[in-house]
Amino acid sequence: MLYTEKELQDTLKKDVTISKETEKRMQETYAQIRRDTKTSKKRGRKHTSMAAAAALAVILISGTTAGAAYISAHTDLLGNVFGQQSRTTKEAYDTVVDNGKGGTTVTMPSREYVAVDEAQAEKLVEPYVEDLNITRKIGDYTLTIINNISDGNAGVLSLKLENPNGIKAIHADEGTNEAKGAYFTQDRDFYFYLEGADESLVADKMTIDSKKSSDTCYYLYSSYVCSAKNTDLKFHLEQYGKPVSELKDDDMATQKEDIALGIGKMPLTSAVNPENNKEQFAYSAISLSLNLANGFGLDDEIQKEDGQTFVDPYYLKKLVLKYKDGSEYTVLDENVDNTNYLCGEMENGDTIKIVFNRMVDWSQVETLVANDVEISVQSYKKEMPKKEQ
């Protein structure tokens, strides 16, 4: 939202009723305005920071309602991944994609995004965001691992990639956000990916903040799921010294580095099927994993391969969380996809793992619906596994 100077002044003069948290944020903004004013005086100019004043006006206008813009140290992370900061709700639509045979029509699912709820964020997510700010120089590129939030089962990593000559190593835009995520190009001379302990698999989808990013600076968010719980996550970085398009078959990486990200701090709760005392699903405020072969009515779809059983994620047609107040979060349905990322059939083929596109307060969830199976969440036996340090 843009404001003229007069609108800002009028807003700042208004009498409003505010909460203690809003008052705290206002005082922080006032302090910033005073600091900016002192700095300006030293430079021979006396003026108030319009950016800080605008932020204060937003606080006064929005208050602390659920639909207000969420302002915190992690606004970008939470707003992009669990809110509406750079995303808009879209209805399902048909589009033509290249299949190498003249194109085929596919239906892109509808996606709904909701505003970040301030109280929820401060209670469920903020305490577990780990600020990393790890920087690496890669030729003309500067890569910064900004922060990470994880429950040991799934999570989100925020990154910044800069190059004064333009970003050519990664292709990312709103189209890739809707499809399978950003991808590396043949112009790159480096590569990175996430990996668990003992080289266990970590799958992810990388999206871009298309509003804040520019041709020379990408703000990226990797929503990931781990095949092993409570794994020591690491960021694997390789450099090649020249573009991938020029590499020969026997060329190897000139530099390799594993950057330790640790074990996620967010609590993960395991719900046990009372019929066999085995985990049926596990959840946190940001993710959900389902053992599709354990009590979800898919016994006839269980397949075996190389001594392992698995259930194709294709058979999960519908997933809904029903809240105590009567509202619902439709995670998946026909032509509906309200996830940040979904992946199944990794090392444990029976399990499907989901990163939500909004925060979930499980104390308010009454029923989990998977296809035709309804589970009363609050009545289930729950365990909170201890995280190894």
Give a verbal description of the structure:
It is a single chain. The protein is of the alpha+beta class and 389 residues long. It is built from six helices and 25 strands. The chain has helices spanning 5-13, 20-42, 50-62, 75-82, 118-125, 174-178; strands at residues 93-97, 104-108, 130-138, 141-150, 154-162, 170-171, 183-184, 190-195, 202-208, 217-226, 233-239, 255-262, 269-273, 278-283, 287-291, 303-305, 308-310, 319-323, 328-333, 336-337, 339-344, 351-356, 365-370, 373-376, 381-383. A hairpin with a 2-residue loop joins strand 23 and strand 24.
Question: Gist?
Answer:
The protein is α+β, with helices and mostly antiparallel strands and 389 residues long. The protein is built from 6 helices and 25 strands. It has helices at 5-13, 20-42, 50-62, 75-82, 118-125, 174-178; strands spanning 93-97, 104-108, 130-138, 141-150, 154-162, 170-171, 183-184, 190-195, 202-208, 217-226, 233-239, 255-262, 269-273, 278-283, 287-291, 303-305, 308-310, 319-323, 328-333, 336-337, 339-344, 351-356, 365-370, 373-376, 381-383.
